[in-house]
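Following up on my earlier message about nicotinamide-adenine-dinucleotide. Here are the inputs again, as you asked, copied directly from the submission form:
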Amino acid sequence: MKIGFIGLGNMGAPMAANLAKSHDVTGFDTVARPEGIALAESAVAAAKNADVVITMLPNGDILRVVANEIHALMKAGAIHLDCSTVDVESARAVAVQATQAGLQAIDAPVSGGIGGATNGTLTFMAGGPAEAFATVQPLFDIMGQKAVHCGDAGNGQAAKICNNMILGVTMIATCEAFVLADKLGLDRQAMFDVVSTSSGYSWSMNAYCPAPGIGPQSPADNGYQPGFAAELMLKDLNLSQMAAKAADADTPMGQAAHDLYAQFVETEDGNGKDFSAMLTRFEKRGRG
Ligand code: NAD
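Thanks, got it. Here's what our run produced:
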């Protein structure tokens, strides 16, 4: 397959490099110039002869700008596969625009982070036509370990923000419970042993424990180097609250998680740290 890859940042560069082992990949980025990928001079040049154009960009506004540049010049019937995390509205608008240009669009945000992108073990959650999903399945197989078709355009983004809203809320709940346990004189290892095998268990506790030295290896054991940065969690919680407002969904826990991560990243010391460093925030505080 001939692939155009636009957005060669932390995630895009290793994803494109994995595809380039078995496909003809031409990449473009306004800033990054990673080695090992053939580079074009513009987004249009990377996209115009491609069967599939993958975008891996920072947000929905940039996605819309790039889609505007490339759609009219892409090959008839080609697929625009957007793997960025963006707002549901932008994903749906870009899909409509693609269809009007005689293209097919799939939104397929990922989970798995930079490690998953490098090792080809990402999980994709995809929205868009089943036929286009089947066409890009071999690319998902190279870049990841699992791809779930979630329905129509935008549903990949919907799945991603719902998942990450649960993740943000459960991480905060796990962190505050550890600090309550500390203050009650309950040993952290005992707390982990009980909760990880009881009804309070979750991915945040069992697989990504925010307490250093407890549970499997996680960013907590590495000075809270991200992993999944607190500012990226804030981005996703922002997207879920935007979507909740647009859909008139009542999401008080999502809102509370959003507000806490906003405080942590914007006015405290959370920027650049893993999102599980929320534990250190609670350690420093009392109720006041
Ligand atoms: P990044 O900032 O490292 O990469 C984005 C790249 O897009 C940059 O290199 C930037 O120069 C480029 N870019 C911006 N505007 C452009 C344009 N008009 N044309 C071409 N290139 C342009 O971000 P990232 O960490 O690679 O994340 C990419 C997407 O993946 C984001 O939507 C993010 O939310 C999502 N995501 C990231 C992670 C993670 O752990 N980093 C995990 C899951 C999802």
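One observation from looking it over: Residues 15 and 117 are 5 Å apart (CA to CA). Hope that helps, and feel free to reply on this thread.
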